[in-house]
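hiii, so i know i said id send this last week but things got crazy w the move. better late than never?? heres the sequnce for the chain we talked about at the cafe, plus the structure i predicted for it. fair warning i was half asleep when i ran it
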Amino acid sequence: MSRRDYGIMAEFETADRLIRATRAARQAGYRQMDAFAPFPMGEVSAVLGHKTKLVPVIAAVAALVGGGLTYLSQYWMNAIDYPLNVGGRPLNSWPAFIPATIIVSALWLAAAALLTMLIRCRLPRLNHPVFEVPGFERASVDRFFLCVLAGDPAYEPRDVAALLERHGAVAINRLELPA
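okay and structure toks below
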């Protein structure tokens, strides 16, 4: 079975070293990288160019659509389709429609945010080349990892490994994909 490169993965002991290595790799011209850390690191995300604006926009639009549909369906059912005058109350009693509208809006917002995040993160993913790196399970405890992907136009394994080693990598692993 032939194999092809996925990238070079470097392990760092501290967050500062990961930040310095990420900046250096970016300055060296590498654009396709991924970082793994036990806690969110805004500075690394900024250097990697991660954008988080899409999820809130999609969630807000979904909340507006869900709330609008809920309100309109209540209006349709109570004022147009089956008008029932109870005690002289108006058929379009909007205060009565608000609780259900808010609840359904929140449901649509949460569902849209979850689905958008799953799709953007390409999850669920049961197997990934980084899982083969010895000690990668420590990425959720106390270690920091930076992976320069082979799809990067400037990718040259020896140059990437040398750059990461100069910036304090404890271990460097070459990742491969099964063909």
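btw Helices lie at 15-27, 42-48, 54-81, 94-120, 157-166. thought thatd interest u
miss u guys!!
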